[in-house]
Amino acid sequence: MPKVPGTTRRVPGRKLAVALIGAVLLAAGAAALVLPGPGVLMILAGLVVLSAEFEWAERRVDAVRDKAFQVAATGVATWPRIVASTISAIIVIAVGVWWCTEPRIPELWIIGPEVPFSGWGTGVTIIVSGLIALGLLGYSMKRFRYGDDQPPGEQQPAGSDAV
Asked: Which of 75, 97, 129 is the last residue of a domain?
C-alpha cells in the first residue's frame, strides 16, 4: 500500500490507550482538587493526553492551561500566600511520613483501630504530593514572582517596557 504524504499509520489500540490514560489523569486531577495534589495541572495533563486523539479535548487545553497559570501566579502574589503554601506542603509531607508508620487510632464507632489505607504505599503517595507542591511553588515563584512572565489574562503594569 503506497504511503500518502501527510498521513500517519494508526497504531491499533492507540485511541483506547490514550482515552484510558487521559481519563485516569482527569479523574486523579478532579480528586486532587479537594485532596492534596496539583489538581488543575493533572486535569491539564489529562486534556493534553486526550488531545492527541480527541478534538474536544484539544479545544479545552488552552483555557485550562491559562487557568492553571493564573492560579499559580495568584498563589505567589504575596508573601503570606507563599508562606502558607510552604507550610501546607510541609504539613502534607509530615502527614505522609506519619502515615507510613501505620498509625493506630482510638476505635470510634466503626472506625479504628487502624487508619484505612495506611502503610507505605499511601504514605509515600502523600509525601510525593507534598514534594510536588513544593516544586510547583518554586517553579511559580521563579516564573511569576521573579521572572518577567505574566499569567494569561494579566495586564502589564502601566509604564512597563512590554511591547
From this structure: 75
What are the pLDDT digits (tens) for 102-146?
766 666 666 666 666 667 888 888 898 889 889 988 988 998 888
Q: How many domains does the chain have?
A: 2
Indicate whether 81 and 132 sit together in one domain: yes
pLDDT digits (tens, 9 = 90+) for 11-48: 778 899 999 999 999 998 898 888 766 788 889 999 99
Q: Which of 104, 99, 135, 131 is nearest to 118 (CA)?
A: 99
Q: Is residue 160 part of a domain?
A: no
Residues 139 and 89 sit within 8 Å (Cβ to Cβ): no
Range of the domain at 127: 77-150
For residue 8, which amino acid is it? T
